[in-house]
Design brief:
Blueprint: H1 10-13, H2 19-33, H3 41-62, H4 73-85, H5 90-109, H6 116-119, H7 136-150, H8 155-174, H9 178-183, E1 189-190, E2 195-198, E3 207-210, H10 213-222, E4 236-237, E5 240-241, H11 246-258, H12 264-277, H13 282-289, H14 294-300, H15 305-322, H16 336-348, H17 353-363
Antiparallel strand pairs: 1-2, 2-3, 4-5
Length: about 375
């Protein structure tokens, strides 16, 4: 039976706000909901309400707040000082400021008077966001634990293991989000063409994602165990689509067995990092992940030290030859620095295309 939808607790989030401001918040959230998938409406609405109204509720208690024009930079800075004194991090208050300014811009477009100076308030400086990819050794251990369940003698455990292996490889090899895995339909998967279609993902955007041979193999092994379902959803548990927390809970179980900590979205970071270090162009990685801005892709991926070192020594060898600083005799196959980078890449399993060609040359004598 279909589960009843959870109602959003509007009264809690809008408590103490003037009726005019409460109505403007409701109108803004209704506008935002048009850009959200249907199954994520409750979660995203609650999160946006919590972030936006925290400052508004404080302002209503602190001063005589009547209209949106009463929100000024001085009021924000007073609130900011209190939040920082309470131990809040800059990232947290920056999210609140971003939500507040987005709401004010919406009001300005609707010709509602607002304080223009508050729109020019800058966020607090923060350090660079490091991508939270999973080390390769931990990925190997997690994959081994999934294989244990996929080859279990118990039918129920084996079915879950085979299904977990399929969505695990989709996230790690193709960079799918958890929501995209949950909404994936069987008709959108083209195993012969090794591609699948992501429909109405984040920002209601569609894209085509390519499948690795290992991902195709895992899906083909899962389909005979899929069983009857009410709709065309690809991944089902007990004849129903996966819940919001299914992937996270299963991944937490596998991680606990091998002593690591990992979240599902980190597999998407790992996909971007592995592709980039394997020599994939940045624009290609951007298209696979479905990012609108290239800067977003850069925050998802990082270059391994071995990759950076190999590229540096290769480029520096060209620079030395152009400056005629290198000896005129035949250059050696590898410099000391390139050898160090190659050994580092071999140990981590992160060889790029040039390093793989070098290994092939060495093996051929």
């Amino acid at each position: 039976k279909p589960q009843p939808e959870k109602p959003v607790n509007w009264d809690y989030f809008l408590a103490g706000l003037p009726d005019e401001i409460a109505g403007l918040v409701r109108g803004y959230l209704r506008c935002q909901q048009r850009n959200w998938p249907a199954e994520a409406q409750w979660q995203l609405t609650g999160g946006s309400l919590s972030t936006l109204t925290r400052f508004l509720r404080w302002a209503a208690d602190y001063t005589d707040l009547k209209t949106a024009a009463d929100l000024t930079p001085d009021l924000w800075y007073t609130y900011l000082d209190e939040r920082l004194a309470a131990g809040m991090k800059a990232v947290t208050v920056n999210k609140e400021l971003h939500a507040l300014q987005s709401w004010l811009r919406y009001l300005a477009e609707m010709e509602t008077p607002v304080c223009e100076r508050l729109l020019r308030v800058e966020r607090l400086p923060t350090g660079p966001n490091l991508p939270k990819d999973v080390p390769i050794e931990q990925l190997r251990r997690l994959a081994a634990e999934i294989e244990v369940d996929a080859n279990s003698e118990r039918a129920g455990v084996r079915r879950c293991g085979v299904m977990d292996r399929a969505w695990w490889r989709l996230m790690l090899h193709s960079g799918l989000r958890v929501g995209e895995v949950r909404r994936l339909r069987q008709v959108d998967v083209d195993l012969d063409g090794q591609r699948l279609r992501i429909v109405q993902s984040k920002g209601l955007k569609d894209r085509v994602v390519f499948l690795s041979a290992a991902a195709v193999e895992a899906i083909e092994a899962y389909l005979p165990l899929r069983g009857p379902v009410l709709d065309g959803t690809l991944f089902v548990y007990r004849h129903r689509p996966l819940t919001v927390t299914y992937c996270a809970e299963r991944l937490r179980t596998y991680a606990a067995r091998c002593g690591v900590r990992v979240r599902p979205h980190q597999l998407r970071h790992s996909c971007a990092t592995l592709l980039l270090n394997a020599g994939a162009p940045l624009l290609t990685v951007q298209a696979i992940l479905g990012h609108k801005n290239l800067d977003t892709t850069l925050t998802y991926a990082r270059l391994y030290d071995g990759t950076v070192a190999a590229d540096y020594y290769r480029a520096m060898a060209d620079v030395e030859q152009r400056l005629q600083l290198a000896p005129t005799s035949e250059p050696p196959l590898m410099t000391t620095g390139q050898m160090v980078a190659l050994v580092d890449g071999l140990s981590q399993g992160t060889l790029n295309e040039r390093q793989r060609e070098l290994v092939h040359t060495l093996r051929s004598g």
